[in-house]
Amino acid sequence: MVRDLFNMDFCLTWPTSHFVHRFSFYRSYYLTTEDLINVVGFEWDENGKKIHASELAWQQYMQFNPLAAWFKGRRLSIRNDLLNLFKDWGSA
């Protein structure tokens, strides 16, 4: 089971319900950050662990995806961990 492998890899003991909720949250976080970084005008700042773009680019993107506002100016210190976790999963 995926949950068991995840718990073993990350030394966790999450029950199925907790795992499903957190997995879904982190998958959405990963997909949104990757979408943002692939939009023209957005770039990943590895040193600052933030996504940078002009104010106009942010405003235009947030009209398309209002949830992206959460990522604006925020330090995303777990992005690389999520990249390692989800890179082979695609949009599954």
Automatic annotation (TrEMBL):
The UniProt entry, under InterPro entries, shows: Myb/SANT-like_dom
Q: What is this protein called?
A: Myb/SANT-like domain-containing protein
Q: Which residues form the Myb/SANT-like domain?
A: 5-61
